[in-house]
Amino acid sequence: MENEIHQVIPINPVPYSRSRQAGEAQTVLDHIVDDFQENPVAMQYFYDLFRQVYCHGDEIPHSGKLVGTTCIQAPEELIYAFGATPVRLCNGSYHYDQRGADFMPAKSCSLVKATLGMLSSENVIPKIGKPDLVVNPSTCDQKKKSSVMIEGMGYSVYDLEFPNVKESEASRVYWRRSVREFANQLRKLTGKRLTRANLKAAMAMTGRAQAAFRTLHNFRRQTPSLILGKDAFLVTNAYFFDDIERWTTAVEKLNAELAERQAAGFRAVQSKAPRVVFTGSPPIFPNLKLPLLIEEAGGVVVADETCSANRMLYDMTAVDEWLLSDMVDSLADKYLKPCTCPIFTRNDDRKRRLLDLVAQFKADGVIYQAFSGCQVYEMEYRSVAEEFNKAGIPMLYIETDYSPDDQGQLSTRIEAFLESLKNRKKRHA
Amino acid sequence: MTAAKPAMQRLRDAVNEVDFNRFRFWFQITAFILFVYGGYLAIDLGSKLPFFSCGYNREGRAGVCYLLPLQHQLGRNWAVLFSMASLTILTGFLTFAAWFIVLNKGWCGFVCPLGTLQDWISALRRRLGIRYANYTQGQFAQLTKIKFVLLALLILIPLGIGGGLFSHDMSPPFCLICPARMVLPLFTGDLSQFTIDFSSKTAVVMTALGISVTALFFVGSFVKKRFFCFFCPMSALHYLISKPALLKLKKDGSKCTRCGDCYAVCDMEIKEIADDVKTTNIMTDDCTMCLKCVASCPETGALKATFVGIPIFVSTETGFIKRMNKGCQHGK
Asked: What is the arrangement of strands in the sheet containing B303-307, beginning at the earlier edge strand?
């Protein structure tokens, strides 16, 4: 027996940077960087960041305990206030998607599968370390059922109870209690106390990041566009794992450059390029398939309504009295009330926000991405389409996943859609 | 971005980005001094004012709250009440209405001395680091009716007195239980209202009730923001005649994300301000038009105060960010 083992030809494990997984990231990143002209200089920070983290597998340092979050509803201000670092675990890698298929039924959401695949692998990319706690807000069914599986992988998991009706007063009260309980959990985890001073400092930090995001968001109103959507998505994706202060500084630099571009009358796209609002399942690096297809085909994503970008950073918190209780309650409200996640019973807010984005950003049409298996987005398609029909706004609905196989077929559909938007524009002009 | 902004736009931006809480604090102090001490400077703005410039503050008052003469007028003998002499009731009301329509409920949020006093008591509580209390939705729905009941009583009881149904010792009924009657004269060193009148049973009951309400006022406004305003019959009267008012609180629902930031800062816990995206004229019966909601709205143009249709204070993203940054750094 022993002899046989010795006879096996040892396979040297390839370094991460030469793995198929790194290759996937490399291909997308090269595409983002090299196949478009005149990328903003300030984007180099983000290109380098993704190259280091996703292509080379470099480690990302963090301070304090590491708290993984699987949804935007986990209040990150609280995590920062306890001196811990949040990291968003939602993953966009096809490699992990395939790996995670072991855990979920065949027709499930790629994002959930990829997150499970990532957490179950030995070499987790982004390499930020093992989370001391995984916070899993009880949002959609697939995420809810992931809790136990993640626990089974050896993580300590906290189910943050999130209501699925958001209009009622009962849900507000319930959620505020949930958030307080979450703060208790963080206290146990970190052994630190939540104080007025540290929560205020945390809110100042996220407030600055949000202000920077909003500035970037506002620059995208400009026609013709100053920046492409693929870059904007990369920026917000970096927020998942990057150091928040460093991230904010980089975005502020980018904003300064966009201001210069605006002053110089710069155009990132042709003046007739169809302007698209992106909604639905979130594009997360390396799965920037749709935004890239849109922009390759001559369109431009000018705004989005997704939880990997706009929904994550847009809504800001107002506090009346800067006492701990008031701050925590205001934060809780911010994470529930404006949220346009499709897991809620009603989606009036989502429809209104989409209509407003189309109007404010002078969009010509909307592209709606639903990951196959993401039932809530698939089910909301009907009502959103009806709303747009009424308003006379064209929409393309695309059901897809992380697999690159459907790129050819999708690019044909997207090109046709953008062409029709152009024709429509001409007719209206 | 590069071209210089026109002067009007710059002025608008400056207003919209103002440190609102500070502005309102100083505005309220000025109004408080004017209406509690203005009398010493021989200022007299009449007796039809639409807020609690209390008539019992005899020396300092710069004008009198309309509720005092209204109750007196309605308490006339019925023979007089139903004669031509009562035209003065009508003219009085019109004068009151003329004052009112200028600021709408803005009188409550910016001018009323009793309102200002409650804000100061709240500030004291805040400095002590004690959190404020809230009503539950059910409590709110019940309590919000009380001000209309008080308004009805404020009209019916004087009518009853005039008709001989109630004792004259009940007149003026609301003033006798209004905390302003006892509290505002204090500021000019007049303690005479802090007494129980033993001249008759009715007088004992009314003055004792007055003292209890005043005690409740202090306790209530310490734990609850704008505690008394919730029950104020003047506020109810305002609401009933607010349609032609010049100052308006407007909401553009299409720009609202229902984030609830406005509700979070609302002293009166008005949920509609955040949740209602259909009504454009968003001032409710409980509103004091303090405009804190406008100052704390991050969506440009979603909330605004207009005067004769002209926007004078509009919610803006930049204004919001400035104000909240300030709060984060050294907010109290």
From this structure: B247-251, B303-307, B310-314
